[in-house]
Amino acid sequence: MTLIVDFLNSILWGYVLVWGLLGVGVFFTIRLGFIQFRHFPEYFRVIIGSNNTSPSGISPLQALTISLASRVGTGNLAGVAVAIYLGGPGAIFWMWMVALVGMATAYAESTLAQLYKVRNADSQYRGGPAFYMANGVGSRAMGYAFSICLILSFGLIFSAVQSNSISESMTAAFGVPGIATGVGLAAVAGIVIFGGIRSIAKVAERIVPAMAGIYILVALYVLVVNITEVPAMFALIVKSAFGFEQAAGGFTGGIMAALMNGVKRGLFSNEAGMGSAPNIAATAVPDPHHPSSQGLVQGLGVFIDTLVICTATALMILLSGVVDYGPDGAQGMVLTQNALSAHIGAAGPAFIAIAILFFAFTSIIGNYSYAENAMEFLGLGGRMPLLILKVAAMAMVIWGAVQPVSTVFNFADASMAVMATINLVAIVILSGTVRALTIDYFKQRKAGKEPLFRFADHPNLDKGIDPTIWNRDVAAERE
């Protein structure tokens, strides 16, 4: 199994996704008129003061916090440390690049998820890549393949990745055995997961902003204390990305190591183009009521995840001076804990353990919500199939808590790569639809109107769209 996983990773990451992710991101950046730069304030406007819900869906703010719950986790703490250890400081630069172009990719995939969403048997909104593959591209086969990959990766494997990081940090900080951490985490996560997507939304809405805010405050303290060294760290990151500082700190991996590890860990962290966040984006009631507004919300999630939180982690690690690129050097969560210990003393490992406990816990419940969406597409949304998925997800949490970090990350990389490859093909095929929606949205904004999408006004976009969702009294649904 290890040989198969390693082969998949070498092909998909070495020849497909490293260039595919950047290429698709650049493609959408250009085709959408550099939307993430020209309309950057709009990414915030669609979320400020937006808390509308309806019996059919959750609010844009809840959709953002659930997607951040999934994004902000292991990738921001352990993933950044792994990127630096394997790719040197330059890997962070490529994480930034993935995020900058990824804001356009994330916008595109979540806009499509909104457009092609449906109502399930309980009148709840459901949607995501599988739905726009079936209804937009016209290929249910793509939708089935994507859904299976999503369930395997997010419903199962990524839960193991998150619990692995929690287990490592709890053992390092408090000496708690991995199995004890796994069982306890599975029990608490199970309580939330068995409550359904609305329960997940309520928990994420409270935990994610609070924990992210505290983490950023600690990072700001570290930056202020070391403010004179911060410019040099940014220069080191940029120079190392292009091989000008390959030997910095003993790292000798070169440009490709920085590029490969930056892209891999960047995607794992912000998930742009992977097709994960669109699953929750589709369940939101957009405000303004236009598919593009929810696309902008999820684009903002990429910015917060990588350009804010990952950068904070990277600077804390690099400023600490504790990175050892030798074979016995600390990596993953332990490296992040060692770095913060160098800045704030004995409280550092404990703080990181608590931070990853909350970040990774919310990732587990957020990831599960994506898998449940995929089960709906496969026609497995009944009580018994979902019960099996929930039990399996909890079992993976326990399994991940006692596995070596390399094993868990390799499995995660392989499943993520297959899933992302299928999604990237689909959104490129539907890029004309995304462009039409974008033009419509900003044309209305420029005219001083609140953007509103109505099915009847777009006869050229009628394929696979549920007209009852977009031709209705918007105000009535918000009551």
Unreliable runs: 473-479
Strand content: under 5%
Architecture (CATH level 2) name: Up-down Bundle
Query: What's the CATH H-level homologous superfamily?
Result: Amino acid/polyamine transporter I
Output the radius of gyration: 21 Å
Number of domains: 1
Strands of the widest sheet, in order across it, are 1-2
Termini gap: 53 Å
Number of helices: 21
Helix content: over 70%
Mean pLDDT: 83
How would you classify the helix and strand content by structural class?
A: mainly alpha
Explain what this protein looks like in three dimensions.
The chain has 479 residues and is mainly α. It has a single domain, classed as Amino acid/polyamine transporter I, CATH 1.20.1740. The chain has 21 helices and 2 strands. The protein has helices at residues 2-31, 35-38, 40-45, 60-71, 74-87, 90-115, 129-137, 140-174, 178-193, 197-225, 230-241, 255-270, 278-281, 291-320, 332-344, 347-377, 383-401, 405-429, 431-446, 467-470, 474-478, and strands at 118-119, 125-126. The protein has a two-stranded antiparallel ribbon with strand order 1-2. It holds the Pfam family Na_Ala_symp. It is found in: Cell inner membrane; Cell membrane. It is a multi-pass membrane protein.
